[in-house]
Amino acid sequence: KQDDDQLIIDAGQKRFGVTTCGSCGMIYSAENPEDNFQHTQFHQRFIDSIKFVGWKKERVVSEFWDGKILLVMPDDPKYAVKKAEDVRRVADSELGFQQVTLSRPLQAKTYLFINTERMVVGCLVAEPIRQAFRVLDQPDGHKDMTKDDFMERHRAWCCSTVPEPAVCGISRIWVFSLARRRGIATRMLDTVRSSFTYGCHLTKQEIAFSDPTPDGKVFATKYCNT
Length: 226
Ligand code: ACO
Ligand code: ZN
What we know:
With 226 residues, the chain is of the alpha+beta class. Helices cover 36% and strands 24% of the residues. The chain has a six-stranded mixed sheet with strand order 3-4-5-6-9-10, sandwiched between helices. The chain has a two-stranded antiparallel sheet with strand order 1-2.
């Protein structure tokens, strides 16, 4: 009898179920062969990319109970630069960025958040800039659209034409899907502000986000107003 019940439950899960992989975070339908194949393809590459074995020299710029933030500079040892690139590639593919090269690779600083399980769960790329254009609040006419509708259709934000001075541009910020909403992005940005320019603490106004995604915009708005 119990077996029968179990069968029914299993069938239901299979028919309707989408699974979130607890290691790589991919959401897929386990019983769909193509989905399964894509997950297998993605899973190991992802795990290898974010796995952190520990380095002989680590530039630790912040430490927390649940992890630490390392800073990687362009002329650091090859193993460090390679890891930063691997993680950036993961972030880029999730962000839908095509080009993997940075606009000014020799000046970019990469911040990696390493958790206590030795995985890189956060990545932030910061570059020196001189000016930025403020993203303007959306006109009221759009307010009746649902947020998702609106975000989907307006990836290009309305920007002011008046440049404002800025010091540090955030060209990428990414947190592993299973580690979001725990303040990792916030702590990476706080760390950038205290370590990007030697001996100087940057204000929130001196930081600019380049071409934010909907997630990025919600986060940036929250961060800059608090
Ligand atoms: N929806 C609503 N509010 C949000 C969201 C969201 N998806 N993400 C962050 N916030 C707000 C919340 O108010 C949050 O505080 P709370 O959790 O106490 O409510 C606050 O921002 C701080 O959030 P954090 O926990 O510090 O942010 P997190 O570590 O989750 O990282 C990030 C945010 C980087 C945007 C993450 O969602 C992500 O990696 N998304 C996919 C990649 C992406 O879109 N990156 C931005 C690209 S733009 C650029 O790179 C310039
Ligand atoms: Zn997986």
